[in-house]
Amino acid sequence: ARRGPSMASRTSYMLSPSAPSRRRRASAAQAMRIRRALMWACTALACVATYRVSSQPSAADSTLAMFDDGAKSSAAFTSRRDDGVDVMRRPTPSSVSSSIVVGDALAREGGDAEREVVSTPTSRGRLLTLSTHGALMMFDIDTKKSTVVHEGRGVYYGIFPADVGEAGDVAASTGPHGNGHLAYVASRPENADITSPLTDSLLLIDLEKGVLVRDLKIDSKFTHDVVKRGSQVFIADTGGGRVLELEYPSMRAVFAAEIGVRQHVNTIVPADVEEYGMHTVWAVLHNLGPSMLVLIDLEKGKVLKTLDKVGSKSHGCVPYKNGFIMLNSGEGQLIYVNPEINDFDVLWIDSSNTFMKGLVVIDDIAYFGVSAFGKRWERGDPSKTSDIVAFDLVSRTMLWRETVQTLGLLNIIAAPMIDEASTWKAISWGKDDSAIPAITTENDESQLLQDTVNDNEFSNWIDLSAKERPESSGLSRQNMLLMYKPIDVRDLQNFINTLPRDAFKAYAQEKNAKLGGRTDNMEQFKPNVDTMILVFSDRSGKETYVFPYWHKLKRYVTPILTDLFNKQLGIQGDPFAHIIRLQLAVMNPGSEIKRHVDRGGWAKNYHRFHVPIFVPSDQDATEFVMSPMGASRVNVPLSEGVPFEINNAIAHWVTNFAQTWRIHLLIDFDEEIVPPERRHALEPGDVCDYSKLDSGCIS
Prior knowledge:
Elements: H1 8-11, H2 19-50, H3 59-63, H4 75-82, E1 98-104, H5 105-110, E2 115-118, E3 127-132, E4 135-140, E5 146-151, E6 155-161, E7 182-188, E8 201-206, E9 211-217, E10 226-229, E11 232-237, E12 242-247, E13 252-258, E14 265-270, H6 273-276, E15 280-285, E16 292-297, E17 302-307, E18 315-320, E19 323-328, E20 333-338, E21 343-349, E22 354-362, E23 365-372, E24 385-392, E25 397-405, E26 410-414, H7 442-452, E27 481-483, H8 490-498, E28 514-516, H9 519-525, E29 529-537, E30 544-546, H10 549-568, E31 579-587, E32 591-596, H11 601-604, E33 607-614, E34 622-626, E35 634-635, E36 644-646, E37 652-656, E38 662-669, E39 679-681, E40 687-689
Parallel strand pairs: 28-40, 30-39
Antiparallel strand pairs: 1-2, 1-25, 3-4, 3-26, 4-5, 6-7, 7-8, 8-9, 10-11, 11-12, 12-13, 14-15, 15-16, 16-17, 18-19, 19-20, 20-21, 22-23, 23-24, 24-25, 27-36, 29-30, 29-31, 31-38, 32-37, 33-36, 33-38, 34-35, 34-37
């Protein structure tokens, strides 16, 4: 692995354990081994009475034998079953029914929760995965029923969905949001069991069948969180005191940033690519006490930011409304961290002595785990239960609280079936396919034009409030896509046709200003796409910069702006005074803009318009797709000179597999005039750093 410079000077306080502490750990480990032997014996006796056990190995057991590390044969797992490590574990849930405790708050207070038998798999409802110290489970938030998916591989932790075709012969059905049944989950030996033959691994598990498809060993110890973003996988190597970045799907090590074992990193949140770059993550440092949230550049091995008021022994972190939702585990609190003031507000607190782990935010509801405090060696106790709490972040009220027999401490709550980012981004369950009609025929396109073009009303644009909750608000054409009347773009077309073929390449724009700090973003999401910038803003959209090429193209672009904004939208005065970003985006033949969501103040608080200037004649080879979660995809009609506004907070992607280029004029528009003091002129040859535009053009 490529290793960045050590950050020990910033955050590490690594100390060598003293002899007494080593003896205490050895005693704890010995006690744990004895306790586990007793628990296994009790479990085996309980299996006789509770489970229907097959006398022959099942197909599921055979599948569990599959490895992909190039060293072990399929007999490796079988021999391990026979040598006493796994022989007394419960039968796999794919071949038997599991007895799971499901209860509610009244049951917790009034006695034993109701015992109910639930078989694998659960119904295809709104499902959460629960990674615990004893099993990987499913929990249906509507029926409140839980199911064991997989067990017998020690402690289960971070989870993310596999891509399409990941399992080879076992077909995956993951899509842009997941929506599949194959997922990687981190597993490791139990905390105090130093005799375990298990190693830290990523297990590829079929969530529907409950079987292990692949076992990938990872260079990590005491692994906690594991998350995926596109072609990147990030791992909290807690025992090694590092944050790792792997390349997906090869799982090749790319970077390893050292933090320190004592910091006990437990949660990873990929940072905004546009603002911080491709290899930057937020990491929660438990610190065995007062915790921190740090922003780490894995490529450079540097801590960029530190928030040191995020609770005690904290876990979980989901970016939400310009801050972070986190679990102040040491105090039993759900909190909102405000990075601007480096402090937090308490949203909910459990008055009893509880410990909180596992957090997702779906449709403005936080689902998190609450468990009783206990010793570390007790965390693998199969009789252990945890509560799952649903809390409405808008009304700030608890909706329900359910007790689940989690077969050990609850570690991670996720929803990999609907989004790979379920543990590190606020997501949505989505809606029925009928929520948004797909636009697939000419009649549909004509109807869309009729619905959105109005001769008698001005200011017919998308309500910006629709960008606040694009997937959970009432989706409609009016808050997703609007088409306008055709505009004459021939003057701009004729000018572009006079330019050299490579005029849009960065090296050919020497007389324009240059914008750095976006290379990683462009390479990942927009490979083979060129841009000619006329106006650009900082990430917030408040500070805008006029590039020299605006003056070169002004006479050709101004008539387009006048037609769209003055004539069609009724804007008074010069429309250019409202523009925060203006650029020509060139999709070369064979290029694609990958599925993405535009983020930042520039996207959320302003209108995004497209004016197609050149559209390939083979329109079947060019596609602009919007993909609202849980609804049919929408194919945006592309015609030269026909403008449209999109809600760019909704996922979208574009392909151009034609033999000619596709060029759009992109406009980001402020409903108010941009104050003159926030409009800055650049000179030819100026070089600006995107991450510093809020402070001026700094190369």
